[in-house]
Specification:
Rossmann fold
């Protein structure tokens, strides 16, 4: 039986895994797909050997080290007992590098999908990628050349975020009759991000009400987040009239503007043409270390891809409710500024059109396994 393992460690990767699993099942209906992921992957027919409820990354969630060890143990056991033809590792390098080494030592081919951001920090990972991956499917255009210069077989396949948007409505934002401004607040997908950003949003909502009147405020939560851990913060936001939803693309497709924690959600907004303010807060120690080791001028993928500042970035102490509200004021009141940002986002979007990453990655799996 044709068998593939897909391993994703957090919400964005799990989305990519679910889209890939759907395409694999469409291409080879009798294929068996096993892996680590969440509800979306399971709904697409993936047999979960370990389920994620949220990101269990090493950097911030040391309390879950036991779960990480258990997940790695189960994945290694499945590689031995089931021996999939291909092991697809999606991002999440601290976990997937270890699993990739293990797979290749046992003669199982590894396809790395959504590579670590070696261009931003820890370029030493380039050597590690060469050791653990037979092929790499990258989702940002400039990454292909970085790997190829190191003699690593890499290919730009497009971005799954664009793929999902196109599948859900050709990337066209929803029209609405209500002329009240709609503002989307996206706090991030990791527990630490919610812990730092939700309190900012609580005060920001009050400023939005005072400046924009009876606006509609939406706060989408990432899948696999344990909402009960943030019950008090979410209830406070709801009491202020914020609608808590579970669909970021749906929320952004109706939004006039957004405040977004730096991450994949900024690409969702960019591809939908939603003007935004990007924010991010880290623990003081992590911020200091980041200032030392990061090799990038910007933190948001939008600005990194554009090579210039299209959207404002408010980091650490600048990510205050008052400063965020000032940027929203400018977006709402300055038509030239707003239109210029939208034009920049549209230009960025154009470079991702014409690619269907799940289709191409499925082809790569078939080529590596000898099914094509």
């Amino acid at each position: 039986m044709k068998t593939v393992m897909i391993v994703a460690g957090e919400s964005s990767g799990e989305l990519y895994g679910s889209l890939l699993a759907r395409e694999l099942k469409r291409r080879w209906p009798d294929i068996r797909v096993i892996g680590i992921g969440g509800e979306r992957m399971e709904k697409e027919g993936v047999e979960l050997i370990y389920g994620i409820s949220h990101s269990f990354g090493f950097i911030e969630v040391f309390s879950t080290i036991r779960k990480i060890r258990e997940a790695l143990k189960r994945a290694k056991t499945a590689l031995i007992d089931i021996r999939p033809a291909i092991c697809v590792l999606i991002d999440y390098p601290d976990f997937n590098f270890r699993l990739g080494y293990y797979a290749r030592k046992r003669g199982i081919k590894v396809l790395y999908y959504v590579s670590p951001q070696v261009w931003a920090w820890r370029r030493g990972r380039l050597k590690k990628m060469k050791e653990i991956a037979d092929r790499i499917a990258v989702v940002l255009p400039f990454e292909e050349e970085i790997y190829r210069r190191e003699g690593i077989e890499a290919e730009f396949v497009g971005h799954p975020v664009m793929e999902e948007i196109l599948e859900r409505g050709n990337g066209i934002r929803k029209k609405r009759e209500d002329m009240q401004p709609v503002i989307a607040l996206l706090p991030g997908s990791r527990p630490g991000e919610l812990k730092r950003h939700l309190p900012i949003f609580e005060h920001l909502v009050e400023l939005i009400r005072s400046r924009f009147g009876n606006s509609n405020i939406l706060l989408p939560l990432a899948p696999n987040i344990d909402a009960t851990a943030f019950h008090e913060e979410l209830r406070s936001l709801q009491n202020k009239g914020v609608s808590i939803v579970n669909d970021s693309i749906g929320a952004l497709s109706t939004a006039d503007m957004a405040v977004i924690a730096s991450g994949t959600a900024t690409l969702q907004a960019a591809f939908l043409g939603v003007p935004m303010v990007v924010i991010y807060r880290l623990s003081p120690l992590t911020y200091i270390i980041g200032r030392i080791i990061l090799n990038v001028r910007y933190i948001s993928l939008v600005n990194i891809l554009a090579g210039r500042c299209i959207v404002p970035e408010l980091i650490q102490g600048e990510a205050r409710p008052e400063r965020i509200a000032e940027e929203l004021d400018r977006l709402y009141g300055d038509e030239d500024y707003r239109n210029g940002m939208i034009a920049g986002l549209n230009s960025l979007r154009a470079s991702f059109l014409g690619h269907r990453p799940s289709l191409r990655v499925a082809d790569m799996i078939g080529e590596m396994a000898g099914w094509l």
